[in-house]
Design goal:
single chain, alpha+beta, eight-stranded antiparallel β-sheet, five-stranded antiparallel β-sheet, 21% strand, signal, periplasm, lyase activity
């Protein structure tokens, strides 16, 4: 999509107040080219008091071997950046060179750089990720755990090189306030881990100079974020993260006259956005489970750091966080799998755990188990991970041991405000069947940036293993064809009409006309459980089509009957897609197929069309792909029933489950 087309589409989704605000932002950017509004010189910091310690002494109880291995790889110049593992970037790296494409971003005013243009900056996700400085925290943790000076020296060298290569306000690392905010969070952790204001790194004339240089950068970061908050249709998780960075920095370094104002502003923003961006029943409105994880992590970290400094958050804020945890717990099956609904970018706010098999969702539930004394969250989390050990220390470990784990006898089955509904049986056991149905809005605000065209899709797991899955995300700013496929209707377990998506794509993070989903019925307590809903995305067609889906689940027989009704007058091409997890072996037979997992079997029958077309790693047509990690994909089996309908038509699919 051309830059002009993208701008026209973006303008379509703006109201008058947003247009006026963006004009002011444009004027602000133009003025900054001549120095207006920039920090001419950072004021001298007052280090009479800095933030209280919020990191525990957990070195004796964490996986030090894994931590040291990660730190040693960084010092050896081997970096993990999304799909590129063990990448030789050197130490320190070239911060303005995209490690994926080799493109060197221009060194001019950051706000004048179009970071969306691959020809200018390369793949911006790969360029930004190392500069979030999670690896700085890795080195600081390794120093704290081992006492080896080379890790602390490496942390200093990493920072000095970044200051040298990324001078305020020039370059691509001075474009996005969210990137600055995440960097500030990691700087706060590293500062404390390295010894705070009294660190040995700050001793002597050179140490004093280094300390002042770091503090000047902190001030510049805060000033930048304060001037460039994400507003209006961009006020999603980016705004929350920006408030997080400003709050943490102003609590950790209350060193300037503006610090108190920054902290008060950020606190008010966090309190308001926690309630605005998340429904009362615990669903993040971006309709992307990984972004729910990120927002929850921000909320937990801000409360943890604030509480350590006598500035915890309100009961309403914490109540909303607890509801968010309940939704994650409801989605998680007995094997710990969470459906990959909506976008995911693999981001962590800070990395404190290196042990094998670490799960961000289990980690969040462990944090919430401690915070809210919830035995059901403890059961889902399974164990106390290293991240929580660094945050809560021996006291947290003792409270964890004292907390009795509770089963999942009565899980939350309906999230009507968020738009998700569950069917199933034997929850939390090896006989579990868990069905998660998406009857939610497309996404948040006018652009719905991180939503997927997945209305009335559902995922299915049995015996703790995924059978029918959501294929994930794969790409963001680059590889448009793949970006569009993974968020398309065809990439979800639902019905596609005339080769169209339910909602109309307007750009990489933008949707134009959006499907509306509506609940018609949900009866999870009946002998035969029922979900019924409809979505109107195809009513925009010349001959409008209304899609209604009913799912009947008989837990006594482990049988689902899926009835898709397409109300219309004319003729339409219809495709019914089913995506099987990569652990499934799938074979088709006439009008049926079977899928074998490790502990379960699925038999599917449907009389529509000529029987299932099985796509495996197909590019024409696209299908048979899953992305478990950002920028990585692998083949799965996608079954497609295709046919032509004339007028209102009902398509019945029967799914029978057998558990080992």
């Amino acid at each position: 999509m051309s830059s002009l087309a993208w701008k026209i589409n973006r303008l379509k989704l703006m109201g008058a107040p947003e247009i006026a605000w963006r004009v002011r932002q444009l004027v602000q950017k133009k003025a900054s080219k001549v120095g207006i509004g920039l920090v001419a010189k950072a004021p001298a910091p007052d280090l009479a008091s800095t933030g209280a310690t919020f990191i525990a002494d957990a070195a004796a109880n964490v996986d030090i071997a894994a931590l040291r291995q990660a730190a040693d790889a960084i010092l050896a110049g081997r970096w993990n950046v999304f799909a590129m593992r063990g990448l030789n970037l050197g130490f320190p790296p070239q911060w303005n060179r995209d490690p994926k494409t080799g493109t060197v971003a221009p060194m001019k005013l950051g706000k004048a750089i179009d970071y969306r243009r691959e020809a200018v900056v390369g793949d911006i996700k790969y360029l930004w990720e190392p500069s979030r400085h999670l690896e700085l925290v890795t080195l600081a943790l390794a120093w704290r755990a081992s006492g080896e000076q080379r890790y602390a020296a490496g942390a200093r060298l990493l920072l000095e090189s970044w200051f040298d290569q990324c001078p305020y306000p020039n370059g691509v690392h001075w474009t996005s306030s969210l990137e600055l905010a995440v960097r500030l969070l990691n700087w706060a952790f590293a500062w404390q881990l390295l010894g705070g204001a009294d660190s040995a790194l700050f001793k002597g004339a050179e140490g004093t100079r280094f300390q002042r240089r770091w503090l000047d950068n902190i001030y510049q970061h805060c000033h930048f974020i304060r001037g460039y908050f994400s507003r209006h249709s961009s006020a999603n998780n980016h705004l929350f993260g920006e408030y997080m960075g400003l709050f943490v920095a102003s609590v950790q370094w209350p060193c300037w006259p503006e610090s108190a104002r920054w902290q008060a502003l950020a606190r008010r923003g966090l309190e308001a956005e926690a309630l605005k961006q998340n429904t009362e029943d615990g669903v993040n409105k971006e309709q992307a489970i990984y972004y729910q994880h990120e927002v929850m992590d921000m909320m937990l970290l801000c409360h943890h750091i604030g509480q350590a400094n006598g500035a915890g958050f309100s009961a309403a804020y914490l109540e909303r966080l607890e509801r968010l945890a309940e939704f994650v717990a409801a989605l998680m099956d007995a094997g710990g799998n969470v459906p990959m609904t909506g976008d995911a970018d693999d981001a962590q706010m800070v990395r404190l755990a290196y042990e094998p098999g670490w799960s961000p969702y289990r980690s969040l539930l462990a944090s919430c188990a401690l915070l809210f004394q919830r035995g059901d969250f403890k059961r889902k989390a399974g164990r106390l991970d290293d991240k929580n050990r660094w945050l809560s220390g021996a006291d947290g470990a003792a409270r964890w041991e004292a907390l009795a784990a509770a089963g999942e006898e009565k899980p939350v089955l309906a999230f009507p405000q968020g738009g998700y509904y569950l069917l199933g049986s034997h929850f939390g056991t090896e006989r579990e069947v868990r069905i998660v149905v998406d009857c939610a809005p497309l996404g948040y605000l006018s652009i719905a940036a991180h939503g997927h065209a997945d209305a009335l899709a559902f995922t299915l797991s049995a015996a703790g293993e995924e059978l029918l899955t959501d294929p994930g995300t794969y790409a963001y700013h680059t590889q448009k064809a793949w970006r569009d496929y993974f968020r398309s209707t065809a990439a979800h377990n639902t019905v596609q009409v005339d080769g169209q998506d339910q909602s109309e794509i307007g750009g990489n993070f933008m949707w134009l006309r959006k499907a509306n989903a509506k609940l018609l019925g949900h009866a999870p307590q009946e002998a035969v459980q029922v979900f019924e809903g409809e979505q109107d995305g195809y009513r925009r067609l010349a001959d409008p089509v209304l899609h209604r889906r009913r799912i009947d689940f008989d837990p006594a027989r482990n049988v689902l009957v899926v009835l898709d009704t397409l109300e219309c007058r004319g003729a339409h091409e219809v495709a019914l897609h089913w995506h099987f997890a990569e652990t499934c072996r799938v074979e088709g037979r006439a009008q049926a197929l079977f899928a074998l997992g490790h502990r379960s079997r699925l038999d599917m029958q449907c009389s529509f069309g000529d029987g299932p077309e099985l796509l495996r790693s197909s590019e024409a047509p696209m299908g048979g792909w899953i992305s478990r990690r950002f920028d990585e994909k692998e083949g799965i089996t996608t079954a497609v029933w295709r046919g032509r309908i004339q007028g209102t038509t009902r398509i019945e699919t029967t799914i029978a489950l057998s558990l080992a």
